[in-house]
Amino acid sequence: MQDDLILETISVTKNFFGDKSTGVNNITIFVPKGKITAIVGESGSGKTTLLNLLFGTIQPDHGDVFFKEEQVLSREHGIQHAHQVMRMVTQNGIDMDPISTVWETVRDGLPVEDLSHEIKRVTEALNMLNIYPLKDYPFGKLSGGEKQRVTIAKALISRPEVLLLDEPFNQVDAFYREALQHDIRQIVREWKTTVVLVSHDPAEILSMADELIVIKEGEIVENGPPDELYHSPKLLYTSQILASSSQLTSVQAKTCGIKSRRGVVVIYAEHVKIVMVGKKWVVKMILFKGFFEELIIDHNDVTLRVMNYKRGKYKVGSKVSVKITKYFEFGKWEG
């Protein structure tokens, strides 16, 4: 394994109940050291199965998982060095004691040999996740976002080399989500911790990840830096996963002034600009998105999503015209 890699899978397959449509199939990935790698895909695509294989919770049917030069086996075979330097955080915190205080919960993540430094290490972990003021609160009395911070603090207090996060922001309110994402990025920078996270939310992964792995039906279909996959997706699936977009046939695309040579055209909402000439499109719906709106517009039974930063300018029933600044073509080539 290269020095800049820390985790690797070689042709790993794990199915359940003998069904090849479950789990993952023939997956090879390379996780860079000291970076944030995100695994993204639709529900049931195999994301969590892959995370559990990396952690050693389950054993692959075929193929191998490596931590550096060490093959990672299921924890049922005994605890290896790789298991000791990895921690996993799930979205439900099911193994937490609701009666224990935040301090006690985080302290329980310390290795026995570090208990003599309890005050220093626990204080450091609580401050890193900005939850020190909660140290005397029972875990069960915390909000979802606070519980997730405590769970991550407990995982980090042992200074693991790898932190695995399964939908880490699923229970976190939007108000706390960005701050928690910032804290995790800060930990990666300062502690050189490698993070592998699973998510279905493009807003999370695009703002956090250094590397992105797109998984579909148990197979890796695309991987690379998030900005490259977002701006130049090779597959229709990737474009649908990463952005709010409109999917059109080549015939429908003609309504937008697009002459496509392939069967499917995808237009991101941000690439549809409203112009003032020839108002033919009708605003059918307005979706409030905070500091912007998403307009759903229609013309000749063709529907587009439009990102609009001038909130309140258009009403349902208003007529507009559009200009497409960029689009992607997928599918079969047509004559």
Report on the structure:
There is one protein chain. This protein has 335 residues and is an alpha+beta fold. The protein has 2 domains: 5-238, P-loop containing nucleotide triphosphate hydrolases (Rossmann fold, 3-Layer(aba) Sandwich); 244-333, Nucleic acid-binding proteins (OB fold (Dihydrolipoamide Acetyltransferase, E2P), Beta Barrel). 25% of the residues lie in helices and 35% in strands. It is built from 10 helices and 18 strands. The strands form 4 sheets. Strands 6-7-8-3-9-10 form a 6-stranded mixed beta sheet, with helices on both faces. It has a 5-stranded antiparallel beta sheet with strand order 13-17-14-15-16, with no helix packed on it. It starts with a strand and ends with a strand. The mean pLDDT is 90.
What's the quick description here?
This protein is an alpha+beta fold. Helices cover 25% and strands 35% of the residues. It has two domains: 5-238, 3-Layer(aba) Sandwich (Rossmann fold), CATH 3.40.50; 244-333, OB fold (Dihydrolipoamide Acetyltransferase, E2P), CATH 2.40.50.140.
The CATH topology annotation of the largest domain reads as Rossmann fold
How many separate domains make up the residues? 2
Strand line-up of the largest beta sheet = 6-7-8-3-9-10
Oligomeric state of the chains in view: single chain
CATH architecture level-2 label of the largest domain: 3-Layer(aba) Sandwich
Report the span from N to C terminus: 46 Å
- At the first level of CATH, what is the class of the largest domain? Alpha Beta
SS strand fraction: 25-35%
Form type: globular
Query: How would you state the average pLDDT, rounded?
Result: 90
Based on CA atoms alone, the radius of gyration comes out at 23 Å
User: How many distinct helices?
Assistant: 10
Q: Main β-sheet: number of strands, strand sense, barrel status?
A: 6 strands, mixed
- Flag low-confidence runs: none
Structural class call reads: alpha+beta
Order of helices and strands: EEEHEEHEHHHEHEHEEHHEHEEEEEEE
